[in-house]
Amino acid sequence: MRGLADLYFQQFKTSLASMLQYRAALVIWLIGHVLDPLIYLVVWTAVSRSQGGSVGGYGTPEFAAYFILLMLVNHATYTWIMYEYEYRVRHGMLSFALLRPVHPIHSDLADNISSKVITLPLILAAAAVLALIFKPAFHPVPWAAVAFAPALLLAFVLRFLMEWILALAAFWTTRVSALNQAYFIAMLFLSGQMAPLALLPRPLRLIADALPFRWTTSFPVELLLGRVDFPLALAGIGVQIAWLLLCLALLRFVWRAGVRVYSAVGA
Amino acid sequence: MCGPPGSTYIERVGAPPAIRIRNLRKTYRVSERAPGVRAALQSLVRRRVQEIPAVDGISFDLAPGEIVGFLGPNGAGKTTTLKMLSGLLYPTSGEVTVLGHTPSMREKEFLRQITLVMGQRNQLVWDIPAADSFELNRAIYRIPRADYRRTLDELVALLDLEPLLRKPVRNLSLGERMKCEVAAALLHRPRMVFLDEPTIGLDVTMQRRIRAFITEYNTRYGATVLLTSHYMADVEALCRRVVVIHHGKLLFDGELSALLERFTAHKTIVVRLEDCDADLRAYGDVLSCEDGVATLRVPKARTARVTERLLADLPVIDLTVEDPPIEEVIELVFSQEAP
Amino acid sequence: MRYLKLLWTFFRVGMMGELAYRANFFVQLLESLLELGTAVAGLAVVFSYTENLGGWKPDEVLALLGVFFLVGGAIRLMIQPSMEQLVESVRDGTLDFTLAKPENVQLLVSIQRVDIWKLIDVGLGIGVLAIALGRLGVHVGAAQACTFAATLLAGGLIAYSFWMILATSAFWFVRVENILMIFQSMYEAGRWPVSIYPGWLRVTLTFIVPVAFAVTVPAEALAGKLTWRTLVGAWAFAAGLFILAHLFWRAGIKRYSGASA
User: B1 in a domain, yes or no?
Assistant: First the structure.
């Protein structure tokens, strides 16, 4: 156990130092992270204004609150790991990872977190500016604020595992772009990035509940906004844990299969 | 200088081999497609697959502590074999055991005892000082701190790394980077060291440095070293035993001197005369003649006779008999067609 | 003109290179259809709640989407791949090869790569545009078609100049690998009419990252919302930005040649 802690500490040190060298690039990625929710915020605000101030239980201040919070949660949970693995496989860069007596997911996780540590102040500043401009309305509930932290943590780990498993598709095919695209489309609609899930037509809402997407981004947001009652919050966290366990099992299996396929052809 | 000699002595020594390979085979299946529309449509229906044997049934052993050179031209199967030995590639068939483990199982215990250094490929993190990458490796390989300190100090001394440690890796020259790569690869004192063309792209001084280091390391720690190269100078300097691979098959396994003996049919005679006016074609193939220094190639068996005649017939100032350059011999070996 | 011939040659070479990979056609078709479907679905969700978005009717926004795809496809056809190649060649020094050629370097780097399958996007965009205009009952007369073409050209020139400026800054910011992402991230805002955005964002999307000129203005031309002022302004901006991009490029080349090691 101590060895693992030591590994993570060293890995973080290394990742952080590396990521700092790329801070300009990280800032540019941030533009998209701020702009996407901002665009939908403006769109839905325009919609609600045209309908006399509110749509589906969301008024303009509520939309502001939703999308600003979504921006933060999305930033906390996003990964770029699918592109990363496609790149690594294409350029034969996996040999060194495969030679090490540790699982490559550790360094990937460290990279992900350290990049967010560096950009955190910026995205918080962006959120503050947007809050000043759009005047969001928060109706937080004390227990929800407490439940938010574990929900966010679970959402992060779940999404990371999901996308890490999907990234391994690069072992089987070089044409992962279509798969990635399908995934991001699903995320766009079903994790609440395009619109609050409550506004989606019922069939989509049901799919979003059944699949893990809602639980990666929308759920923590709904929780903190006070749009989820206590029993549902509890059930939600349970669902997150269930998907998490499923992903962990899947991960071992897919990783072993992926290495076998990759090692048959070679780096 | 070279560690205990080759596989034929293993039974004598009695220790289990560090590497044991029997009938190792690696075949790639490559789909073929001719250019043109017709072929493109045909390929949708029926895929023509060619089987290319990269490694075609090789067997040899390595004793613990040996340094063995693995020679072969590009595409001969050297790197493929090395990847199978380090667990990066699954063999198509055959047995391979390294330090008692099956490499393709990729057991953590196994991975902790080996290392693979590939020329021109970096495992060091690009943007940070080498020293930080070293610390990371310490954590990855779970090296106890005391051992780590000691090994690091020794490596720094042997490779002269002190001025390089604090600079970001991207600011180092190619040779400096290679030294740091080698050090990083050896921090965990692996018992098995695979070196894949470690001196490629380096200048002559650095090549010599790296070679000297490998020898020193092998002597000091008794690690088994398998080195691939197509630079003869690497092999000459480091190993008494060479394994020659070509077209995926073993052509030769034994001492370097025996290799030269077997494949050399000629010797070179260098004669110094007053000038180049004399016609030397009767004595042998005249390779060159400049300022009175003539280089002749004669069949090995006739060397003594030709030397006698030269000394008798001409006003020779100086005469030497040489083996042909090793490169030539190896080229000859490599130019043999696939059996 | 010689430049047009060069353009056509690069185009043809890029096309032949890609035609060998028939599978890529289907992959691109699938991806583009997915993207289009997603966009239309998004529109459907939004317009299930309203009939008016910032003064734009649903089919007008659909037309906007068509222009978005059309212009996006045109940019991703040649401008984007060439600029990406340029940034890479600055970083790994292969720009030297291009500099040694006896042709206008700015032209060469601007046309050096073609992603021929992006024509699918252009086609889809035109299709969607046609459908939307049909549903609106708009008959596109010669005059309107001309103004549309004029705004498209101005928008194209502006987009090209902007990409050129972004790529040229790679001479100074060699380590910023994704500098071109700036346009791509902000281009997403072009799916929706620029008029819905708050003032500060509208200005940004018009003059700082000129998405509005690329997408909204041509769409306005077809929807009959275009004013003379906008048209003239677009062309003035296009000319100015083009000159600026060229001057910036010259400065960049000077720096590259001086600092090349």
Answer: no
